[in-house]
Design a protein that fits this description.
about 130 residues, alpha/beta, 4-stranded mixed sheet, two-stranded antiparallel sheet, about 35% helix, about 15% strand
């Protein structure tokens, strides 16, 4: 039996471990695209939201892509098929795929990416600065 969770529940869990308050001012972590009341059955994790990532998600029936890098960093004036970003957004919407980004808040969290890398490189006797 597949597990089903509301996107809002998944977001709550992610933000408990990786609070948005940790992100840099210029960053755009959090829910990038989607409805918090959507039921999620399958999620996919990626570094970036590329065309291949989107196509793979659609092929596999994924409802949510959790990416490290946000696909949107600044304001958008148009969402059309005349830009790469517009094409991606339209494809995601048409196929019911939500997008959530964990970027600098994942990097800087106590159990985050920076700590993981430091432990791999330097052992366990480290201090986060």
């Amino acid at each position: 039996m597949e597990r089903i969770a509301l996107l809002s529940e998944i977001i709550k869990m992610l933000e408990k471990e990786f609070p948005l308050s940790l992100q840099e001012k210029w960053d755009n972590s959090g829910l990038i695209l989607g409805d918090k009341n959507t039921h999620i059955q399958k999620a996919q994790i990626s570094l970036d939201i590329t065309e291949n990532v989107i196509d793979r998600a659609i092929e596999r029936g994924v409802d949510l892509i959790i990416s490290h890098h946000p696909m949107i960093f600044s304001s958008i004036k148009q969402i059309t098929d005349s830009t790469i970003l517009g094409k991606k957004i339209l494809k995601l919407i048409k196929n019911g795929v939500s997008v959530y980004a964990l970027h600098t808040n994942l990097d800087d969290a106590k159990q985050g990416l920076n700590q993981y890398i430091e432990e791999k490189l330097m052992g366990e006797n480290i201090k986060i600065m």
